Amino acid sequence: MLKIRTKPPSLRFLFSHPAHLIACGFGSGLSPFAPGTAGTLFAWATFPLMRPWLSDFELLALLLACFVAGVFAAQRTGADLGVVDHGSIVWDEIVPFWLVLVFCPPGWLWQGAAFLWFRFFDITKPQPARYFDEKVKNGFGVMADDVVAGAYTLLVLALMRFVLP
Questions:
Q1: What's the pTM value of the predicted model, to 2 decimals?
Q2: Rounded distance, CA 42 to CA 74, Å?
Q3: CA 83 → CA 24, 51, 80, 94, 162, distances in Å?
Q4: Is the dihedral of CA 56, 62, 65, 67 positive or negative?
Q5: Which one, of 89, 100, 96, 118, lies nearest residue 27 by Cα?
Q6: Per residue of the chain (165 residues), what is the pLDDT tens digit?
Q7: Phi-psi region of 82 (alpha: psi -120 to 50; beta: other; left: phi over 0)
Q8: Cα 132–135–139 angle (5° rounding)?
Q9: Element (H or E) spanning 148, and its range?
Q10: What is the SS3 string spanning 65-132?
Q11: Longest distance between any two alpha carbons in the chain, whole Å
Q12: Which residues of 120-148 are buried (b: 16+ CB within 10 A; e: fewer)?
């Protein structure tokens, strides 16, 4: 399900249904240039607003709820746009990158590395991300391939932390 590069939907579309607002990352997916990157940047910018208020358990529970909501929001928005994984659907970047940030070592350098690795894995889609992208043509597939990108990112960060002093 490579994201189709089409014109971003309008603000009217964004606010026409709550699923659109969520799936399009509260407007970050309307970026005419690299909406997936814009969505990931939105996740990075908003994570510090959530983190201080929630315990680890509460944050993970919230992210699970956001994932489930994302499955439904992506399904509805993709259907309304006529493209299962339209480029403006970026909730699938946001939620997994929030998860990466939960487990990322502290500091801007680590978070910057996490951002770059996440974008790399999201774009290249190594297996099993490619399976979800190509074979699971629904909201779950849209969300799942980015969760795999997040898992690969966390693996690389763990290896970097092990190797680097």
A1: 0.93
A2: 17
A3: 13, 33, 8, 19, 41
A4: negative
A5: 89
A6: 555 557 889 899 999 999 999 999 999 999 999 999 999 999 999 999 999 999 999 999 999 999 999 999 999 999 999 999 999 999 999 999 999 999 999 999 999 999 999 999 999 999 998 999 999 999 999 999 999 999 999 999 999 999 986
A7: left
A8: 60
A9: helix 139-163
A10: HHHHHHHHHHHHHHHHHCCCCECCCCHHHHHHHHHHHHHCCCCHHHHHHHHHHHHHHHHHCCCCHHHH
A11: 50
A12: ebbeebeeebeebbeebebbbbbbbbbbb
Distance separating alpha carbons of residues 35 and 87, to the nearest angstrom: 7
Report which DSSP code applies to 54: S
Closest CA to 76 of 129, 18, 7: 18
Amino acid at 52: P
CB neighbours (10 Å) of residue 117? 20
The token pair at 40 is 């990931």
Domain locations in the chain as residue ranges: 11-163
